[in-house]
Amino acid sequence: xxxxPRIEIDINKxxxxxxxxxxxxxxxxxxxxxxxxxxCAIPKVANTMVEGGVKYLADSRIENLVxxxxxxxxxxxLRLPMISQVHEVVKYADISLNSELSTIEELSKEAIKLxxxxxxxxxxxxxxxxxxxxxxxxxxxVKEILKLxxxxxxxxxTNLTCYGGVLxxxxxxxxxxxxxxEIKNEFNxxxxxISGGNSSSLYIIxxxxxxxxxxxxxxxxxxxxxxxxxYGNSIENTYQDAxxxxxxxxxxxxxxxxxxxxxxxDAFGNKPTFEDKGNRKRAILAVGRQDVNPDNLIPIxxxxxxxxxxxxxxxxxxxxxxxxxxxxxxxKFNLEYGALxxxxxxxxxxxxxxxxx
Length: 357
Prior knowledge:
The chain folds into 2 domains: 214 residues, Alanine racemase (TIM Barrel), CATH 3.20.20.10; 112 residues, Lyase, Ornithine Decarboxylase, Chain A, domain 1 (Beta Barrel). The protein is 27% helix and 24% strand. Strands 1, 10, 11, 12, 13, 14, 15 and 16 form an 8-stranded mixed β-sheet that branches. Strands 8-7-6-5-4-3-2-9 form an 8-stranded parallel β-sheet. GO terms for molecular function: alanine racemase activity; pyridoxal phosphate binding.
């Protein structure tokens, strides 16, 4: 009997999605850094990405890169390093994204201590207003970076969509490519990586509008959920259900659709509202808001409606379902990105690797 609640991870589907995206990007001479953060860098899943052809593994948390230490592939730290973690960054990450000269200086000192060369990608803010130096400051910072021992300027990159929602396009990514040319001309160096963002950049690949000099993308959601993140569209010939949640029914009863009594605040400080649908057949599942936001769950049985959730209970309406459920049965859900991130982070959710045919 399988343990519930659990995330089912179909590694064959993950590998298929990875290969599809690797092949798509290869046509444009673009390498992929497979992002492992959304599944907390489970080594077997990360290795599946490697088998699918990614050139790097990337994660925002150094703790996750530690899990991947045994995999023989370059590791990239996505979140800007904390000075308090420079030892771990140099030890476990081959490359890191950076925007602060003071942090790069500390990485240099640590790299010298460890007799290593730590590679960095200088992040440039092209308008999304998350991490990155301003365009006008790039050359002055590059000049200082090139003076440091133990540090190699591997490339430049940008992040778009994640905070400000700014879409990548041929203009802003063209600007990034132009900055790479300026660095080459000013300092007589060739950058290995020009990283044009994340899964939101895939749509301009499909439109054949990505600038030629962009040679790296950092892909997570597109691999694990088969979806580009500029418009949320499914990617052709990929799976959207490589990760599923299974939760067990712990109560199944017919109850009114409106609570009886004066309505106050729920467990999260909100005053809920309800629609009167009469008596409905309701199931309670053993998973709750401590594990996942129910708004990011998609019942595979389309006749099921999610009603709400408390910390440890998910309440669903199964009245219209053609399948007759009983206590102890499992209900399965497809997942939005946020749900997958929360569920894999929760220690209360079992992670099960499966192999589809």
